[in-house]
Predict the structure.
Amino acid sequence: MGRGVGRFISLEGGEGAGKSTQAKALAFALESKGFAVTLTREPGGTTSAEIIRDLLLSGAEEKWHIRTEALLFAASRAEHCAKLIRPALARGEWVISDRFVDSNRAYQTVNGELTDDDILDLHRIGSGNLMPDRTFILDVPEEVSAKRAAARDRGGSDRIGRRNSEYHRAVMTNFRKMAANSRERIKLIDAAQAPNVVTETLMKNMSDLMV
Ligand code: Z5A
């Protein structure tokens, strides 16, 4: 059982920014303090949502129309929220998700066919508008994220990671705009430093939630 109120944290940023590394480090740090933690990721997190993940991230760029892509991410999130995140929060646990709705807002609006409001509408319909208590956007210079993405152990980029650098630059611009517009929930974090330094910064920036 959790200690007190369940809290929901999401980690966001570009490919190779260190989200998975920090999600694990945060889970460890919180468990050391006696909190029960559910560590999860998007797209995915449940058996059915992971099936949608495979559909989305494998294959050629033209496999999905951008509207279908946005709907599939929202469908994966609907499963994730209903079957894993909401139940864990109800048990009083901390949920740490490696990506959540802000990725949907940052990535699936880049070509201009869908707006931020469209993505938020999908999130309202699919997931009852569940929002994290705190979101960290890990910000690193392009050359650092490229080096880290190349160094990670799971092989090449996925269907979306393979998009060109202009696309990924626009994604980061969207993330930074979201941080500027939601200063209370979303914190932009300099993640170019050593992993333990980044973890300490994250812990400091959520100490207000540890009541
Ligand atoms: N996507 C989307 O379009 N819409 C949505 O709604 C959602 C997602 C939810 C899959 O995401 C794709 O889905 C993604 C966005 C899209 N495609 N792109 N881009 P994902 O989260 O599964 O994949 P990813 O972002 O490509 O994850 P990643 O490359 O695994 O990155 P990461 O988790 O941020 O990095 P990491 O694995 O923690 O670290 C990478 C390497 O760097 C590794 O060797 C670490 O040991 C090293 N590292 C980490 N931190 C440091 C520091 N601080 N110093 C030095 N080295 C470090």
User: Anything to note?
Assistant: Strands lie at 7-13, 37-41, 94-98, 134-139, 186-190. The chain has one domain: 7-209.
